[in-house]
Amino acid sequence: MIPQPGGALEGVRILEVCQIMAGPFCGALLGDMGADVIKVEKPAGGDDARRMGRYFAGGEGYGFMNLNRNKRSIALNLKSQKGRALLIELARSADALIENFRPGTMDRLGLGYEDLRKANSGLIYASISGYGHTGPFREKGGFDLVAQGLSSLMSFTGEPGRPPVKIPVPLCDLNAGIYTAFSILSAYIHKQRTGEGQKIDTSLVDAGLGYTFWQSSQFFPEGEVPVPRGSAHEVTAPYQAFKCSDGYIVLGAANQPNWERTCKAMGREDLMERDEYKTDKDRAVNYLKLAEELEEAFGSDTRASWLQRLEAEGVPCGPILNMAETFDHPQIKARGMAVDVEHPAAGATRVLGFPPQLSGTPGIVRKPAPTLGQHTDEVMKELGKSAGETGRLREEGIVG
Fold first, then answer.
1. Cβ distance 201 to 101 under 8 Å?
2. 13-210+333-395: CATH topology
3. Which residues have C-beta within 8 Å of that of residue 328, sequence separation ≥ 6?
4. What are the pLDDT digits (tens) for 131-142?
5. Per-residue b/e over 164-196, b at no fewer than 16 CB within 10 Å?
6. Quick one: fold of 239-321?
7. Residue 116: pLDDT band by 50, 70, 90 thresholds?
8. Which residues does the annotation mark as catalytic?
């Protein structure tokens, strides 16, 4: 199959009325697959993520550039009647709209699902919010950190006996973006069959809770509440990080054959005969004692030496690398997970690649993140507006 440079979603138009993380990540995923993602931003400053982070180039935050590649930007004042009318015009030809404001915000602007479906009955309208559009907390604002807390994720993250730990990656935000992108594509297939659009309601809290397959399976039967276990697994052992003489490795002996191979690689076949380590369940119950015994052995030699021995026996294992080591790793380089792009304001920059590799319609970084309002004139022209009309709208502060 010859790869198609336009992507699987070429011709699909997405309006992204979002900022910061969850919504823009959803838009980025769809853009990577070829969708025409039009990012609608406020003229005064645009997406707040443009000003977030520690590193900037050409006035743009690197985080923003990472999250907003493969998009066009139009600066549109949605607080004005004319600005709202322009968004409705854009919605007429859109396949989907993504918004991540607090529930009720878009409705008050006259841009809610019921409003826009009058202009386009086939529109897929995806809303991402902290708690969703139903339930007693629906009107509250929410960030990833708050969602990590309410979804219980922080209650079992970290070391036993220590304070709760936030997962450094904004897991609830990102998973909400993934779930929403998946839902948009599912709704798009339904639309192709029936012509019907629909509303999608994604919650950051639900998106976080949706990851707790092992933990909820521990809780549902008898109400056992999961607790922090460091890097150890809930239902199998040894499956965690171990310290060697010069660094850390991770060991995944997640079944009986791998456990026996681990014992052989370590020269500790005697452990297989111990009653407390006989089965996977036994090892999970006694994981702390087992970890102490194994770490004493691992500390006697280097990371490379232990990985060589474990890999020789076919045990899943690997080093714990820092980010500099990761992006210098030959496997990461071979997979193209760092992509160089030329940004119109920042110049040469680097962003993350698209993880899955499709043979026929690959997800790729086709263009850098836009500057604020970079494509306003272009999009206005597509709406049939003349250069003079767009100029007057700009003078009125309707577009930027």
1. no
2. Rossmann fold (3.40.50)
3. none
4. 999 999 999 999
5. eeebeebbbbbbbbbbbbebbbebbeebeeeee
6. formyl-coa transferase, domain 3 (3.30.1540)
7. very high
8. 173
